[in-house]
Amino acid sequence: MKNIVQRGLIIQLRQGFVGLAVILMVMVGGAVQSQDIHFSQFSSSPSTLNPASTGVYEGQFRVVYNFKDQWKTIAFPYRTNSFSFDMPFAREFISKGAMAAGISVVADKAGDLNVGTTLINLSYSVNKYLNRENNISVGLQGGFGQRSMKGEQRWNSEYDPNSADGYTDIPVTSTAVQNFSYGDFSGGLLWSYKSNGFKAHAGVALFHLNQPNQSSLGDKTKLPAKLAIHGGATIPIKDNALGVIPQLLVLKQGPQYEANVGALVKFRLQEASRYTGEITETAVYIGGWYRFSDAFILNARLDWMNFALGMSYDINLSKIKVATESRGGFEISLMYVHPFKATRTTATPLM
Predict the structure, then answer these.
(1) CA angle (263, 82, 202) in 5-degree steps
(2) How distant is the alpha carbon of residue 65 from its chain centre?
(3) Which of 17, 223, 236, 333 could form a disulfide bond with 310, CB atoms 3.0-4.6 angstroms apart?
(4) What superfamily in CATH does domain 2-142+182-338 come from?
(5) What are the C-alpha distances in Å from 131 to residues 96, 100, 134?
């Protein structure tokens, strides 16, 4: 019975891989007026990177928190908070693999009108080792979002050239702009490889499969699908005492295009105990990424006692640097992976 279940899951994985690949090719086109919420430390925000990353790590469960404070020199900066929890299960039904489920919450505030976005998503994935080195995962994500707007809104009809600030003394808050909610669905694929300390991964995801309406005025303004392509590797040097971690992320959403490329250098300060599991690996990472035509991102990270703490800072290089004084966004990521009972692991995921 167990072998029949395993064969069925492998067939589902293959079918899901082909089906999602077709969807990606069909739905990538389309226009969009804005980019999604995303983090500079994209590899430390698995729930917003790829639904297929759900449960792809070595441990019992994972908790991740992300915070971004962007463009602080502007009068009304952008702030984003994200929390996610995911865990594998049903290991007894899938030899060298598992199902996994998770939940994520993202809250964002932007501008002087406090334009807010709240996203709550549930995710589900199935991952399976095809052999000792290769793992493949298929993931789905679904939930709902809410957009809100608070604060004083001024419009062309309120313009008064005789007033001190160019507007009427009593600003009128438009009742046409409404808060709204919407459903949202996404899917993704992820391949992971590991052998003798070397790790590699490549993934593709498509967000907003249902193209939800994003209008605050009651008309139709669809949010087309966003394509995310990402990959990376961990290249060990000198028995894992050093390592180089190149990473890549490409996002395409209508006319909006973003490419990130960079690398981290790993310095191991303490080796994990191989047999007792009483001592975990301690390591620091230093490096960054270049976001083409936009910013250079500096990043530092510490792995300690199953925690991974990352800090990054965006240095603006685009035209907006005039307003931001070349300052971008400060970001923090904190990840905890609860180890298996028999052994302890670092918070570094399989990918």
Answers:
(1) 40
(2) 11
(3) 333
(4) monomeric porin ompg (2.40.160.40)
(5) 9, 20, 6
pLDDT by residue (tens digit) across 89-133? 987 777 788 999 999 999 987 765 667 789 999 999 999 999 989
Please, is 324 exposed, middle or buried when counting C-beta atoms within 10 Å of its C-beta (0-12, 13-18, 19+)? Answer: buried
The answer to whether residue 142 scores a pLDDT higher than 70 is yes
Q: Which two tokens stand for residue 269?
A: 């300060």
What's the rounded Cα separation, in Å, for the pair 165 and 169?
9
- pLDDT tens figures, 38-72: 899 999 999 999 999 999 998 999 999 999 987 65
Output the pTM of the full model.
0.78
**Are 206 and 227 a contacting pair, CB within 8 Å?**
yes
- Given the DSSP bridges, would you call strands 61-70 and 78-89 parallel, antiparallel or unpaired? antiparallel
318/326 Cα distance (integer angstroms): 8
CA separation for the pair 301, 315 (Å, rounded):
18
The amino acid that residue 175 corresponds to is T
